[in-house]
Input
Amino acid sequence: MAIVVDISNIVDRKSLLAWLDGKPHSFAKIVSHRAAMRVAPIYLDFLFSSENAATSELTALPLLWVNLATGTLAYCSLGEAKNEIGHNLATTLAFADGGEAMLAAPLDSAFTYAIDALTSAAYTVIGDMFLPNAAAAVSYAAEAFAVDASIAEAAAVAAATENEASVAYAAYIARSSAATAAFWEVVQRDCMLLIAGEKLQQIALWPNVENPLEARWGDISTLLNSRESDWSFWIKWYLAALRGEKLSCEMLRLVAQAAPAGWTQEPAYMSKLIAEIARTIP
Output
């Protein structure tokens, strides 16, 4: 018998898993996908930092595509294309592991948690264990957000003297806990909207709250616009998600079907291919 959990009590992986039990599969797909999308700027920021710039495009493209394919499978009626895109997604996950950047990142870094959220959300839409994967994806996203939000406090703990340590640690815990709670409140809002029958593809990623990663995304989009490769599609796609603006499922389907063969190509090849697809669909 499923445990009845009030939406206001969804505050961690266990409570979300209990709430999702007995709900439509689409609920798990959408909630996990949106959670992973919220922390995408965290992994992009890490990848495009100066230390990782040499491989950033090669790594970022398949990661973004995994986000896109996951959302396409979560939101769109795809007919026979569903199985093909699911196969493409499973294939691409072998590439979308963060590459050398993942090896360089600490296991408990915001980047690592954001990648874990991305991959768990992907397995939610293609795997049999969709409930635990969905709960894991949201939990990892909350961890990524909390770790990222409390970076300054964590640094203060590391630099604190013995006399300062307890105060610094208390500040870190307070900041991390507040960020975690804030993220789960947004997840609760998604759950309420799903129960109300709302179409979440047309709801902002951070509904009714200010996007705490807005400045980060602004810096990333500016950087992408300055690159030689054409990133215009990805900027448009992520902005649409942030704002709750629905994109053509036909266009998303074509991008999802075209991608995997190109991961062995140069980033410019895939960027051009995807941009050309996007231009063919109004």
Observations:
- DSSP finds 14 helices and no strands in the chain.
